[in-house]
Amino acid sequence: MTAKRLVGGGWQRTLSFGVLLLLWQLASLAADPRKLPSPRTVAGVLVDGIADGSLPYHIGITLARVAVSFALAMSIGIAIGIAMGRRPRLDRFFDGWLVLFLNIPALVTIVLCYVWFGLIEAAAIAAVALNKIPNVIVTLREGARALNRDHLEMAEVFRLGRAKTLRHIVLPELFPFIVVAARSGLALIWKIVLVVELMGRSNGVGFQIGTFFSLFDVAGILAYTIAFVAVIQAIELALLRPLERRANQWRR
Amino acid sequence: MAAVNELHIDIVLKRFPAVGQASAVTAIKGLRFAVRSGEFVCLLGPSGCGKTTSLNIIAGLDSDFDGTIALPRAAGRPRPVIGYVFQTPRLLPWRTVEENIALVLDPAQARPGIVDELLKATGLTESRHAYPERLSVGMARRVALARAFAVAPDLLLMDEPFVSLDEPTADRLRALLLEIWQARPTTVLFVTHDTREAARLADRVVVLTAAPGSVQSIVAIDTPRRDRAEPEVVDRIRRQIAQPAPSA
Fold this sequence. Notes:
A: 252 residues, 10 helices, B: 248 residues, 9 strands
């Protein structure tokens, strides 16, 4: 049943992509080829980029930035989120700050980081992480507020201690919230990373897109976009989904 | 000075402050009794008389009360070890049966093989790798029982652990509890509202008044436990609990 549905779903998805590709082809025939190159031209640029190594290099650089800022944002956000969710006084004090940081536009954080720390790697990473941290805090705070009291009391009576309670009770219970934060985090972070690269780095997908923009090279932009989206999807499928499945195996 | 091995309870006053529309409630007033080392005492009373509240105070989960609690403690232990079987099993759904029991153990102090022994004693060896959501209600209670005994407690607190089970299952679990307790003796304070259950299990029964809870009477049961399987015997003990003879 499940297998059949999967096969059916795969078939539908292929058809759906085929239709999209066809529409693109038709549109490119009608439009100026410089403004909208055909799928074939873009595929050629993609293959060339892979062959000369430039595309894997820039995507690799960008992915490394995504990974570091993602890890930073998640760990800092989870820690602060749990602390605020568990301590009402702390929560009341910092809630206003949180609202402020949530509403600072990504562009402002990026510009300020570059101005304050210079056009360096650390500033780029910090700018991306700072943009994501408030969202992680808000998500995890919700989860930490609703932690199961029964389990915490059990931990207290049996004297599990802080480390064991955190690792075996609090974090597993917050796992669904962590997954939500990670999913939306990845989607947000890889978009912001490109802006950071465009504004202040000399490599990475964002930098390349900027270069193509100045050369009016739409084929290059599309080729990098397609390659990058494919890589991000692969990470989601190969890393996040299995992790989620594993952590949820106890559910009926 | 009280011996270190007895449980001494002296709750002068426990009040729950007013919250919103609800007015303040005096839950316990003048609850005072002792449990000897290795004794099995049932705390019997109507619902709402402060039974769970007193257990939580004894367990250290609630420190907002007037009075003192002295816990039993085995020689050589820096602080008393408490086992608690809650009204619901309170197992972690993301850990298997075995992992739930192992979680409460201190690897530096626990005897190796203790988990296996308790799994065997509670008949859970086959289900050791099962997750709690796949267990029957009775099995989940057995895991909670095994977990509480795993820490080799100086004091075992039990809060109506067999409530909401069908009577045959509850009865089997009571027999299992006595069996494990006799193999691993410890001081037990068992809360129940069921006179029959108290009659079946206890060395002594502490009967509480309606709220605010205090001691109404303390009844010692001399009938050996092996004779308490007979319904007539249990009924006789129940009458004894309901109207304690002055000599008792």
